[in-house]
Amino acid sequence: MLKRYSYAIVKKMTNSFAHVLGHGGFGTVYKGKLPDGNQDVAVKVLKDSKGNGDEFINEVASMSRTSHVNIVSLLGFCYEGNKRAIIYEFMPNGSLDKFISQNMSAKRDWEKLYDIALGVSRGLEYLHNRCVSRIVHFDIKPQNILMDKDLCPKISDFGLAKLCKNKESIISMLDARGTAGYIAPEVFSKNFGGVSHKSDVYSYGMVVLEMIGARNREKIEYSGSNNSSMYFPDWIYKDFERGDIMTIFGDQITTEEEKIANKMVLVGLWCIQTNPSHRPAMIKVIEMLEGSIEALQVPPKPLLGLPTMVPETVEDSNETSFSNPSQLERGNLSAPEDTLQFFNKEFQKPDKGSQSISKSFSTKVSRES
Question: Annotated binding residue at 44?
Answer without folding.
Answer: yes
